Amino acid sequence: MRRRPTHPVRALAPLVTTALLAAAVPALAAHPGSGGDDAARGSHASAAPAAQATRGRITLTPRAYIAGETLTIRGTVGARGSRPIMLQRYMRDRYLDAERGRTTQAGRFGFRIPGPGMATPYSVQLPGTGLRTPNAPVTPVEQTFSFATTPSAPRAGQAVTLRVTSAPARPGRPLTLLRRTSPSSWAKVATASADAQGAATFGVTAAAGDAVYRVMAGAMPGRGISEYPSYPFYLRSRGSERAGVANAGAVPVTPGAARAPYTQPGPVNAGNTFDWGRATESHEWEYGEPLGAWREYGTGSGRVAPAYAMLTVESGPGFYGADDLGTTRATLSGRGSAYGRWEIRMRAPHWQDGPDYRVKAELVPAGTAPGACSPHTVTFADFTGYGNSVDLGVSNGSRAWAHSERGVVTNRDNWHTYAVEVTRNRITWFVDAKVTATLPGRAAVSGKALVPRISLIAPDDTTQMRHTRIGMDWLRSWGLERPGSAAAGQRRAPQPKAGRDLSC
After folding, report:
1. Helix, strand or coil for residue 457?
2. Beta strand segments in 107-173, E
């Protein structure tokens, strides 16, 4: 098991070089807070900071950046003399310390930090004075790719020029063209460097029917940028039938019962509520971290990628006319653990028309084939579309148990935390830091090493589905060294009923 990385509000060593601090610093008006579409940006936008006296100037470059990309913060506190300062980041409802520093005699400062994936502004505080600089807007930009072919409708066997444009453009970034050979495998075709427009061209041959490609934008370690995948691109030869009809409409009005109340578990989760201690493993994507040990499985147009400061499992690129086809999964590789505690914070908004995807978070035995069901599965959460209940359960060989937890509103807005505790003689489920079900005894406990898997499940690979994105804010796991404090909840919680199998 990978040891838990630390995830503070990260900052690199402050820059105090003469060259940087002597650079001109343009004036910047105070910024009231972070912006962005809450639904599109994963509900990470912050409220406006409380009014404080401001002076000096601050700039952050580049203004628009890729999450994780190194940013330079320069400015002046508006007064001469060397003095201690604190770089702070405004998150949700408070300023958080990021890095200590000191100004030059001219009152200038400089820091270098990895760009956060959340649109939360930075400012510099003068400790003990109640003064700070204006807020420097933080503008993370999600990476996108566009594909164009010449000719646009090739015949099978015809040579095709495929032009891929990545944005934001980072000249010199390697772009690798891949072709899908199975739902969990991509074969390398060629690599080229992005030009000043972020574009590269590749030569391919049109196949009979569909060939599925993607581009992997390579890492740029010197700039803090991780590798990043495009959505699958279908190169269709002339006469190839397109599966279904791509989405083209707005999502219908959702019934009021599925839109309210607006509830958030916030920072409260089972891990801290029941005193599980420090997580032994933690996965967060605040700085555009690569997928690492997460493995993608996809039979259609979906993609697994770090985006919007989350791990996203998404059905397609999301614009009108784009495909939303097939099943997409993200599975954590590794040895897994037979016993322990796991918790995720997630939501699954959807847009446009079409049948609803089945959204599922579960534990499966390590080594389970990427697209396979397993007869030994523990399900955190299982629901379809928007509603007011979530299913959870366990299967162990020929036996299965399930429970429907009501009052859990799944919609475009609400985040929820889902957790499960597996011991040698009991399985307990938690939703929003409450014990929702428990199953005593050893009959349901397989003893197999388990790993998390997150899925968008379609009934087949040809039906155009409703565009859906699972956003997983974080996933954490713990051992059983600490006893926790869930015993009172376990005594009151219902037991899942035997006979209903959620494993497939």
Report:
1. strand
2. 108-114, 122-126, 131-132, 139-140, 144-150, 159-167
Residues with Cβ within 8 Å of 153's Cβ and at least 6 positions away in sequence, in order, are 236, 237, 238
Tens digits of per-residue pLDDT, 197-214? 999 999 999 999 889 999
The predicted-structure confidence for 308-341, as pLDDT tens digits, reads as follows 999 999 999 988 789 999 999 999 999 999 999 9
Q: Which residues contact 178 (CB under 8 A, 6 or more apart)?
A: 186, 187, 188, 189, 213, 214, 215, 216
Domain borders along the chain are 18-140, 144-236, 263-494
Parallel, antiparallel, or unpaired for β 139-140 and 64-65?
parallel
Q: Which of 333, 314, 364 is nearest to 42 (CA)?
A: 314
Residues 6+ apart with CB under 8 A from 301: 231, 232, 234, 315, 316, 317, 322, 323, 324, 325, 326
Same topology, domains 18-140 and 144-236? Answer is yes
The span from the CA of 213 to the CA of 234, in Å, is 6
Q: Show the 3-state SS of 155-201.
A: CCCCEEEEEEEEECCCCCCEEEEEEEEECCEEEEEEEEECCCCCEEE
In this structure, whether the domain defined by 263-494 belongs to CATH 2.60.120.200 is answered with yes
**Fold classified for 144-236:** Immunoglobulin-like (2.60.40)
Tokens describing residue 353:
């028309």
Query: CA 116, 118, 122 angle in degrees (round to 5)?
Result: 65
Q: Label residue 266 by pLDDT band (50, 70, 90).
A: low
**Of 297, 312, 364, 269, nearest to 472 (Cα)?**
312
CATH architecture of the region 18-140 = Sandwich (2.60)
pLDDT of res. 269: 93
3-class DSSP state of 349? coil
The structure's pTM equals: 0.86
